[in-house]
Amino acid sequence: MLTKKQIVEKLHELGLKTGDKVLLHSSTVSLGEVEGGPQTVLDAFLEVLGTSGTLLVPIFGRLGILTDLVRDDPRAVKSPCPVGTVAAIGADAEALCHDHWTAETAHGVGTPFHRLGEMGGYVCLLGVDQDRNTLLHGIEAMLQLPYLNSTTRTFTLPDGKEVTKEFKYYPGPHRNFIGLDHRLRADGALKELRIGNAEVRLMAAAELWRLGMEWGKEDPAFVLCDNPACADCVKQHAAIARDSFAKESFRLAMSSRLAGRYVPEMIENLQACGIDLVELDYIQGKSAAQYPAEKLASFVQEFQSSGIVVSAMRLNYVPDDPTPVVEAMQPAHVSTLILPLVGSLEKWLDAEKSAGITLEFANTALGGAAFSAQLKALPAPHKAHFNPVNFVKAGEMPFLRSYGTGRFIRTMTSLDVNDALWNGTPRRLAQGNAEIKELVSIVRCRNFNGTLVLGGGAPCATDARQFCQDFRNILETI
Ligand SMILES: [Zn+2]
Fold this sequence. Notes:
Elements (H helix, E strand, L loop, with lengths): L3 H11 L6 E6 L11 H12 L4 E5 L6 H8 L4 E2 L7 E5 L2 H5 L14 H7 L3 E5 L8 H8 L6 E8 L5 E9 L10 H6 L4 E5 L2 E7 H14 L12 H16 L4 E5 H4 L3 H11 L3 E4 L1 E2 L2 E2 L5 H12 L4 E6 L8 H10 L3 E5 L5 H10 L2 E5 L5 H10 L5 E4 L1 H6 L4 H8 L2 H4 E6 L18 H10 L5 E4 L9 H14 L1
Parallel strand pairs: 1-2, 1-5, 10-11, 10-19, 11-14, 14-15, 15-16, 16-17, 17-18, 18-19
Antiparallel strand pairs: 2-4, 3-4, 5-9, 6-7, 8-9, 12-13
The chain binds zinc ion.
The site of zinc ion has 6 residues, from helix 9.
């Protein structure tokens, strides 16, 4: 059975001393049998910290017995805030807790969690893991991570005044805080020992803030899990992706063939990737042009009701008769049609004028110079879709040769993001001959404001999510 004296000795061994300020997260049952129960644990902490020290406990979420004891202690000061509330006993209780509600966020600057770092305090985890470390929410808030939301609360201030206030960058559902332990250990920021049966960890709050900010700036997903079955983190990763895409000059779309087979699957994948535009090429293995008007309109509606816009329809052949295609596009409100630049296009150019649609053309079996010449020979100017995989299949190096000879700087409205070997075999991005990394880099340098279409105009070597991850890796490494 543990005694107060033994606990005090262990806390000293952990490095705690008179005058320290400690934010404690605990599960006292994990200690095993303690003489006098949780009150003895509380007394041990207060003895070690002395009258000049301060003990804080969060009093929201999952509470423990020790938390209840601190909260109900007549000496305790409670931080006046409906979110991220803490109770504190000791010399700096007021200094740490005052005006908590006036902070912009629940856990960031101006809250007890941030003040603890500024005042040289510590975070102690007693028999619980990093998952319970509230200070980490402050780091997320300070980083203004894109997946955080705000929360609005109406509450009563100590002086009786009622206030309604929005707290920004409020934490959401799942976090992989436990994944930080090994990194903290590697950085020497974690003191660990065992008291009874409980693992006890101590971290300097300022050091935790410093490392967390550093890691989060490097990787905004640093506390998210990678489990594809964790719906919360899939959504949170998507928010980070969407935020990073929004910083680019180009618009980002995905071909429906890459997005999935059925529309609900496509929507799920597009949402998980943080992409809001879809280019309709194939649906359920069939060309979008083969669907009757009603069916096409219902597909488009299905996307729209999930916040996804159809950017264009795309065919990999030129049907003899434009009428059924054009008549299906109109009620579906799809106004742009991408066709390969082959054969006789007269009927299509006529239909474009009379039906009020816009035609755009993609390169097929020609090299850059020949494709551009053909495009220029059309009776009216038209925009080009640069498909690097087709240039590869035509035996040309897309970046070094096609891009330059085709003067695409003026005509290009869209770049298909895809990759393949010379023989046409699909490859993962930047693992084939399409020079896709160079192409993405060059359009970025000129602040290209057209569309990049993931998986556009060719079959892909991977599924939508892997593809999108590969694309993000390209953006991050150029
Ligand atoms: Zn998760």
